[in-house]
Amino acid sequence: MTLVRPATAADVDAIVELERTCLGDDAWSRGLVEQGVAAAIPTVVYLVAELDGTVVGHAVASAAGDDAELQRIAVAPAYQRGGVASALLAEVERRAAEDGATRLLLEVREDNATATSFYESRGFEEVGRRRGYYRDGAAAVVLGKNVGHRDGTESGTATGTTPGYGR
User: Fold this and answer.
1) Is 65 within a domain?
2) pTM for this structure?
3) Which of 31, 46, 70, 109 has the fewest C-beta atoms under 10 angstroms from its C-beta?
C-alpha cells in the first residue's frame, strides 16, 4: 500500500532524483527542493509517496484562497501505473479542500496525452492554455477541478459552482 506523507529533509535526495528522472530539463534545482521541503516557500507543500520505505513519487502543491495548484507530480518509472500518482493526487485534493480551496488547477504539456488522460479520468477539465510555458516552447494545457465548496465541504464534481470555472 502506498503511504503519502509530508516530505522531510531526509527525502530531498529522492525528490531531486525523481525530478531529474521524470522531468528532465524541467526539473527543479536541489536548492528549490530544499527550500520547499523546509517550508521556506509560503503556501507550498511537498508530499512523498512511499512503498516499503522507499520514496517512489512526489507531489508539490500550493494553496491560496479559493485556488490550489498542483505544481508537480512525479513517479519513478518502475512504479508508474501502479496507483502511486492516484494516491498523491487524492491527498493533494484532500488537502486543498481542507485548506479552503474550491478548485485545483494544474498545467500539462499539450503533447502529454498520457497525463491529460490521467487527469481527465479523475474529473479535471480544460480551462485554458498557456503558450510557450515550457523551456522548449511547448504550450501548457490548464486543467481544473472543483475540490470543495466555500463552506469547506468536498464537491466531488468537476463541473462547477465556482464563478468563472468551467465556462
Assistant:
1) yes
2) 0.86
3) 31
